Amino acid sequence: MHRKENKFWKEYNVGRLEKGLPTNFINEKEYRELTNILKKKHIKYKVYELYSECDNKIIYIDRLPKFKCFKIITDQELSHQMIMGSLFSLNLDKSLFGDIFVEDNNYYIVVIDAISQYIKENLTMIGNNYIKLKEVNLNILTNHKRNYEQINLIVPSLRIDTVIARLIHTSRSKIDNHINNKEVLLNYNELTNANYKLHENDVFSIRRYGKYIYVGIIKNTKKDNLVIELKKYIS
């Protein structure tokens, strides 16, 4: 999001909240920006999360927007990226749908009610797979817990370009291309410094490769490399 667009986005949402209207779904970066403004303006607000650790939240004053939860009916294995890509192919703004859930090998999406009919009529394929949507009760996701894949890597340093290069099996020069193309986010901001050294609990994502949390150093090797632990977001 460009600076002017970001300024307009913040002013728009603060204006809505001052009128008692809720935001749509917002990510962690947007949440921090908005709540900082609201605190400075002494505006009391509430936060709605579909479950603890979810990526997308809603800020509201008195009332929430209405949601619909759809189960994706398919006999094929899907991925978070496939589902997200299919939603974006419908020219939908990210604020109109929340987290994508995988629960007991079932797939769910939560959307703002205003677009639910459009989603139901137009989301008929994910990847090359035909799917159907079935509306279900949102409470089915209340006790959802995020799943992670634990990954251990051997790296010469904690530089983020070095870690990512090892993680996705490519060269550091190609990582520069990912960064220059704004395909790498660090703590929900576009990464601009390839030399950045990871700190515990840093969150980073690489477009088409997924989202990760840096957990920390497990040990040093005899050759002075580092064995580090990462967690990859699964659902």
Q: What does this entry show, briefly?
A:
With 235 residues, this protein is of the alpha+beta class. Helix content is 27%, strand content 31%. It has 3 domains: 3-60, no CATH class; 67-141, 2-Layer Sandwich (Alpha-Beta Plaits); 148-233, RNA-binding S4 domain (Structural Genomics Hypothetical 15.5 Kd Protein In mrcA-pckA Intergenic Region, Chain A).
Task: Describe this protein's structure.
The structure is a single chain. The protein is globular and about 60 Å long. The protein has three domains: 3-60, no CATH class; 67-141, Alpha-Beta Plaits, CATH 3.30.70.330; 148-233, RNA-binding S4 domain (Structural Genomics Hypothetical 15.5 Kd Protein In mrcA-pckA Intergenic Region, Chain A). It has six helices and 14 strands. A hairpin with a 5-residue loop joins strand 13 and strand 14. The strands form four sheets. A six-stranded antiparallel sheet has the order 9-14-13-12-10-11, with helices on one face. A four-stranded antiparallel sheet has the order 4-5-3-8. Helix 5 crosses helix 6. The protein has 235 residues and is of the alpha+beta class.
Write the layout of secondary structure elements.
Blueprint lengths: L2 H16 L9 H13 L5 E4 L7 E4 L6 E7 L6 H9 L8 E7 L2 E7 L3 H7 L2 E2 L2 E2 L1 E5 L11 E8 L4 H9 L3 H9 L3 E3 L2 E2 L12 E4 L3 E11 L5 E8 L2
Antiparallel strand pairs: 1-2, 3-5, 3-8, 4-5, 6-7, 9-14, 10-11, 10-12, 12-13, 13-14
Helix pairs in contact: 5-6
